[in-house]
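User: Could you walk me through two proteins back to back? I'd like the raw sequence and the structure tokens for each, with a short line separating them so I can tell where one ends and the next begins.

Assistant: Of course. Protein one, sequence then structure:
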Amino acid sequence: MSSLTSTAMFVAPLLALLVIWAIIVPVFEINPRIFPSVGMVGSAAMDSIRDGTLIWHIGASLMRVGLGTIIGVVLAVPLGIAMGVSPGVSAFLTPLFRFFSVLAGIAWIPIATLWFGYGFGAIIFVIVNAVFFVVAYNTLLGVSTIPRSLRNAAASLGAGRWAILTQVLLPGALPNIVTGIRTGLGFAWRGLIAAEMIATNVGLGYMLFVARDFYRTEVIVLGMIIIGSIWLLIDRMLLVPLERATIERWGLVRRA
């Protein structure tokens, strides 16, 4: 399947939804306070681009989710490797991981605002939480799938701990790590929007929250469209190619 055909198939359902929306709202004369028309949302988009607020909100949200994801990955990968190579560490931490993985992300918002106040720190904490457990668990799975005989063979050939880590464990676990990052970033994006509704005065979540107070449904729908579109772009243009390249690089699949 060509890239053009693939892109067309991906975009077609979104265009169909847009057409249905453009038809239904005027035909049924839906009150704009309940749901806006396509034209109202387009006008809201142009206004927010002209005054710079939309770019400001998008930039703030992307910066937070990027920083929080990086911190979460940097903390999670070493711990996941440690759990993968040490049965004792894994046995001790697995119950804690199962407990906290349910709470990761949005559930931490109330206490995060008590610890860090309303602002940057609380939001970053929520994002790190959303990413950390998913990436650590996937790293553990990746390391666990590496045959112990392969590690022993590397050691018998004179590889030290650092060489085994960088040449055996990390490459072998990398496909799972990338999958964990893709999943964790999805959780982080949702957690970010929820946290911004409560703990800050700038960002896409904040934009939605303020628009609700003034019954500006066109801004709310605009924000929803932007949130979904940004995630689709991140996933399709960055995460999917990265995941595909990783599994192809390490021989899990072959390029057609």
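----
Protein two, same layout:
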Amino acid sequence: MAEFFLLSAIANELLMPLIEFSDKGLCCPQGQFYIDPWKPVDKALITHGHSDHARWGSQSYLCHRYTKPILQLRLGDNAYQTVEWGETIFMNGVKISFHPAGHVIGSSQIRLEYKGEVWVVSGDYKVVNDGLSGQFEAVPCNTFITESTFGLPIYKWKSPEQINKDIQIWIQKNTADKKTSVITAYSLGKAQRVIQAIAEVTEKIYVHGAIFNIHETLVKAGWKLPQVHRITHDTAKVELAGSVVVAPPSADGSSWMKRFPDPVVGVCSGWMQVRGNARRRNVDAGFVMSDHADWPGLLQAVKATGAEKVFVTHGFQATFSRYLNELGIEAGEVKTEYGNDEEEGLTPSTAGIEDVENPAENE
């Protein structure tokens, strides 16, 4: 009888999932740590620096070294430990390594291995290299935890080069008309991409304070980014005429915008793929730029892992997980507190999307 209980205990341990979905976040019971927890915990492993994945209050943080300066800026002084991509560490027997996610600077997927079982938590990601965030690395695993922010077939991005060209042409036209181009882009991720793109057509780049803080943090950490000028109360309106301004989405429609002479506003967001969103938001131009994978990218990433099971954390979970099941990949939805990061506070229900299309009819 004692032998039976021993064998049962061993079987239960082998069947224990590497990740449990708790009220604090993604928990690894064996390793005694959490990944991107939304409540304070003892040990937090962080995929990247966006506020829905990196929150204040935990006792210690483990992240990629590129992410540490961002966490210090946003969360203050804490017990931070850093790793390189591919470096291996162990926590209570769980083998851990970080791998490029391609989402924003420093963004990582986290690979966990225990007794031959491998899980990968992707955080947020995109598979196309934007020249700053690194190239997404497909990590083979048994179970893959994925986002689905843009998990509908209508979302298919242009190349980064074409997006940059569209922005540059728009800016040049505005400059010729002596108008100020104001581009809204989230302060970590798209803002750095936009600044690099517009630096090719103008040296008069002004930024909102929130974007300047991130910019300076990255520059001090060794990133070579174009020079920008912070807008202050002392910045003269005449100085801004014909310039390009990069601001966070929250600035649009605020009193902060009143300082610009004859501004023309453009929004950088994946939601601009949906016809009519630029009109709904009362802006002059919409550029389809996102730091998340589009529909083909999501499918490419999932298939490349070879995972037998997939959990979908946020976005169009129902649509994406249903389609994966139709492909023969076991998939399920998971409720989390992720998803309100770089896409201007929009969600599928507030992004002008009335109907969820059937992927099988649009593939």
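The chain has a mean pLDDT of 89.

Let me know if you want the two compared in more detail.
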